Each structure stands twice: as structure tokens, then as C-alpha cells.
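ok posting inputs for the zinc ion job
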Amino acid sequence: MERRFDNNKTFKDHMPEKKPMEDQEILTSQPCPFCKKNALEMAQQEMDIPFFGKTYVFSMTCTNCKFHKSDVEGEQSEGAIKTSVEVSGEEDMKIRIVKSSEATVKIPHIVTIEPGESSNGYVTNVEGLLSRVERQIETVRDSSDDDTERKKAKNMLKKISRVKWGSDKFTITIEDPSGNSAIISDKAKK
Ligand SMILES: [Zn+2]
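and the output
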């Protein structure tokens, strides 16, 4: 059976099975929506996240063209959410974060991660989120032809490394119309 990637559908619609699977299931040699080779790996993993509930992590990776997409969905999501937390020390770097592809993540004065077609969903912690952002900005710094853009990227990286090493307090805000995102901490405000 041929499966075609259709942008009008959500990510999980592309998964081979919509009913919850046991723990983890991987399908290999699926047709890639971009390079059309049968090189796509599709995986679904079930996680039990305290204070958030059962969560499904979906991912697609093409071993040929490196296309990658991932997303998360909470079983008990309660509709649109806005949540934030102040990160003020090393301990807070471990605060767990669930970010869906529809989430807008804001770290004021540092960075905003917008939702969109190339946006991924994942389960991480504050440190992991900062590292992901760092890698994205590094790509801009290393590949942009625009001087201003490269300079901006360098400044953002400086700010991120300062907060990563705990010398600056900062706030993370997540807005998600799908409700599939969360900041898992007693300190988080809704
Ligand atoms: Zn591909």
C-alpha cells in the first residue's frame, strides 16, 4: 500500500496505525515523502510522563535524504495552553518539557521558536531545549550569507551560553493551541 505525505493532515495521520501501540513500534523501508525512496523509518513510542500522562512520540527519519520529522501527543490534552517557568539555577535545567510541533516557545530577549512545517515535537528538559536552539542558531551563523543575520546569531549564542551556565535568570513560555505541550514543574504557571 502506498502512503503519500499530505500537508493538510497532521503528522500522526501519517503513522501506520492510529490506535495506541505497545511501547515502541518501528516500521522501516517506507516511502519517503521527499526523495520517494523506500528509506523512511517511522517510529512511535509510548511514554508515561508524570503530571502529564501517557504521551506518544512519533518520528520519521529518511536514511537516504535525511528528512526528519517528529511530534508528540498527550493522551489527556485539555485544549489550548499557555504555561511558563522561571529558570533560576542549575537544578532548573532538569525541568522536563514536552513541546509539540504546534507550540510557540519564547525565551524573552533571547529567542522565539515558531511552529510551522519544519517544526518538530519532542520531550526534553530545559538544558536539552537550549541545546537544540543552540544547534539551530549555529546553522544560521555558519551558513547565512547575510552579515547582519550572522551577527545576530552570534549574539543569541552568547546569551544562550550565559543562561546555560546559570549566570542569568530567564523565563520560558510555551503557548500551544493543541494542548500537547507542558512544562513539568511545581514552579510552572498556567
Ligand atoms: Zn528521503
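notes: Residues 32, 34-35, 37, 39, 62, 64-65, 67 surround zinc ion (CB under 6 Å). The longest helix spans residues 126-143.
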